[in-house]
Specification:
This protein is an all-alpha fold and 57 residues long. Helix content is 58%, strand content 0%.
């Protein structure tokens, strides 16, 4: 999966799989905060910029 993300230009660091149960609310919140912070640091979705340039004619 990570190779595919790299191949399409998205980057493997933009996705993460986390298993939590309904009893793990604190761990879920921490995981969401960590992923959100990492994505903010990475900046805008590189695929969005590519898609937008195709529509500019």
């Amino acid at each position: 999966m990570s190779n595919l993300l790299e191949e399409i230009g998205l980057g493997r660091e933009r996705i993460e799989m986390v298993n939590v149960s309904s009893a793990m609310a604190v761990q879920f919140a921490e995981a969401v905060e960590n992923v959100t912070q990492r994505v903010r640091e990475l900046g805008p979705n590189p695929l969005q910029a590519t898609r937008g340039s195709d529509n500019e004619e």
